[in-house]
Design goal:
single chain, alpha/beta, Rossmann fold, seven-stranded mixed beta sheet, 10 helices, 7 strands, 21% strand
Length: 254
């Protein structure tokens, strides 16, 4: 299955820069906070079946919510006696939108946590990751892959920087299978998302764009085909949320 080219990178940068300050509040209102639970599910599933994880990369990290979920999960898995391993854990969030990263860094500072695990945020494009091959145990992206200009290239880059046997994790919107639920979700995305997003951010056009991209992007088994066609994964699985309103994918790197 082929996938159409996404929006120009400059357009996406400008869009997210314009809503960075209100992004977290708008997301919580739009998803009723459910997306936080889905991110936790991604993190838990990403760690299943792997030996002790020490390096994680979150692409298109935005304001860093998935980075913080990884930090909490890996902190729980490190007993006090495992200080040497805990010191080795490093979680990196990257994004090409600096205003979003600035908020992520502010949030990290407000947490006032110990430096274990180590968190850092860096400017980087998902289609040209500045990291060595086989660097990370887990590489993730949440609600960002549909906004990438060249999706196969971004997936290939994520696979390249992940070690063989490691997990590439993707959380993205989908199309609910149940007709009644699909009608409700479609109404929510077409009417509620732009209205709430516009009210909070003052940028309704940005949320009109976001809801349109979410409806046009392949999901479920179709997106699994996109992943497998890159040739970088030995297997791909997915789990639906809310009947397919969103999906989490786990792809194992060759």
């Amino acid at each position: 299955m082929t996938i159409r080219s996404g929006p120009a990178a400059e357009e996406v940068q400008d869009l997210f820069s314009s809503i960075a300050g209100s992004y977290d509040l708008a997301n919580d209102l739009i998803t009723f906070g459910i997306a936080r639970r889905w991110r936790r599910s991604l993190v838990d599933w990403s760690l299943e079946g792997l030996p002790p994880v020490t390096r994680v990369l979150d692409c298109a990290t935005g304001t860093g919510d998935l980075v913080f979920e990884f930090s909490r999960a890996l902190s729980r898995r490190s007993r006090p006696a495992d200080l040497d391993r805990a010191r080795a854990i490093e979680i990196t969030g990257c994004d090409f939108c600096e205003p979003m990263l600035n908020i992520a860094s502010e949030k990290a500072n407000r947490m006032q946590r110990s430096s274990l695990p180590k968190i850092k945020f860096e400017v980087a494009d998902a289609t040209a990751l500045p990291y060595s091959t086989d660097t990370f145990d887990v590489c993730s992206i949440a609600y960002g892959i549909r906004n990438v200009q060249d999706v196969p290239l971004a997936l290939s880059e994520m696979a390249r920087v992940t070690r063989p046997g490691g997990h590439v994790m993707i959380l993205e919107t989908g199309v609910a299978e149940n007709r009644a639920l699909r009608l409700f979700v479609d109404l929510h995305f077409k009417k509620i998302v732009p209205a709430l997003g516009g009210l909070v951010s003052g940028r309704r056009a940005a949320y009109d764009y976001l809801q349109k991209t979410s409806r046009a992007f392949p999901s479920g088994s179709e997106f699994c085909d996109v992943l497998m066609l890159t040739g970088h994964f030995s297997s791909v699985e997915y789990r639906p949320f809310l009947g397919g309103a969103s999906f989490v994918y786990r792809a194992i790197v060759n």
